[in-house]
Amino acid sequence: LKMSWFWLYLPLHLLMAAYLCHSIKALTTSSQQSFKTGLFNFYHSLILADGKETTVHLLKDIPKRYYFVLDESRALAPFTITVTPCDVPIEWSILMHKASASFLGKATQGDHDTQEISKSQKAPSIVSTIFNYKGNSVETYMGMSSHSALYMLEFLSTERDTHITVYLTTDTTSGHLYPELPMDPRIDVIGIGHTTVTLTWKHSPSVLQHRENIQYCLLVNEKHNYKSLCAAETAIRSSGMKLPPALALSLSPYHLEPQQVMILSNSELSIINKASSGEVRQICMGTKNTYTVPNLSPSTQYYFDVFVVNLLTNASAAFTGTFARTLEEPDPKVTELKDGKVVQVVLDGKKQKFYSLQYQARHKKIQFTFQLCRGQVQVHITKNGKTVALANISGLRLFSLKGKLLDTYSVQLRSTEESNSSVKVQVSPHFHKPLFPLPPESLKIKSFSKLRTCNSVTIAWLGTQEESKYCVYKKRIEDDQVWMELQSVDRCSGPESRHKSEKVLCKYFYDMNPQRAVTTETITGLDAGTLYLFDVYLFGPSGIPLRYHSKVVKTRKNC
Fold first, then answer.
1. Where does the signal sequence lie (predicted)?
2. Looking at the chain, which terminus has fewer C-beta neighbours within 10 angstroms, N or C?
3. Which residues does 95 contact at the CB level (< 8 Å), separation at least 6?
4. Which domain holds residue 424?
């Protein structure tokens, strides 16, 4: 079988060998040796296949050559060559090595005639460059073959090692390896929102002819456009993300790496490649030529590339990429603060949106009060555009500020947790009677392990220098309820939200010496080996309560 194959192609190889050897006569000895070495390489690896896409790896500054001879029985037969750079710009050329017909006719008769022609130096060869290109775009050359010519393709990368794909075909009647692009291959941006961009493009003729085997795929990123799918995949790999061959675009069985997220909905496939440099999102939407890209960030520039993909061959063609900048996020609604009025704000932790408040001072000295109800909240206060306070709120927090009349204060609130947060805000002049009670140095409740019994628990908490009312409440809970109880507590709610049976006692207490402003209480009548949730409420002059941090204590099981 191998011998049959060899004899089948022998005439073509003899022709090419004789043609190359014909040029040795005019060369120097060293050049002849170099030429013979090139001839050896030609026979082993440098023949370009017809009708097949070939991947070529290039080393920096080292040219690589491929040869091909077209069907000698067909004069002026059409052929096309498509070269796709997969990374950096390259240089490539097509050279035609041509000799007279009399030489080619005698060259195939045998070595004796070939030697005679060489001695007489008849039929000199002519080498001409018929095409040259430098860049990183996909480029296609269409030409007419000559039965008396040998063709050479030369490739060179001057920036770094890279790879390209080369496709040679002489069959222009049985369809195309690459899907066709429309006459106008541009992508049009027809809609821009804060988090969406809507794109449309003209249909590929391949989609209209072979709908079941063709689909569109969209690439979205924040860096730049890609001129080929090959270049896009190379860039994704080089950024540290592993990308399986023809990821998602051929709809082959999916293999996702840890850096990838796949979303499949409404017959659309979306694969997001995550890296420190950002996201590269690939979306395949079948044969739809209009698509709205969701879940983008506001005020961000994105680059969009559309590829039409042949699912049978995995070959693709790129539309002309485009870019668009999403709209800026609208300014949050600003709420005006009034002297002494309490405003409660609920914040969305997942979107981490800011909530803005504004206050125009009618006094030189003012005080902002923040009571955290739930979650975690960051507070940013500016005066006439300059920052005067920035802090995370825990419990009750006061900010005393000094300025001028009619100074404008802006307050921005943001949840620092994924769950929703809530906070109460009040602003008032310094001489204004505060609605919230003056808090102690700490709002923690302490329990004494050595004083625990089977039916009693002793707790302690800090008081203030003002005589105030303190009320203690207890609630029996199960072991699996502890986390939920502590997370769901609303620290702005007062005793009115509690069941009457949970009330333990109320007492008045104060001490002018902050070091001695500590009170204890022993709660009796408890069940052995049981968990209890204890809360203490501090009531100020206005009657608005301040809730201490809840404390969970378990009574002893055996006494």
1. 1-26
2. N
3. 127, 128, 129, 130, 151, 152, 153, 154
4. 334-429
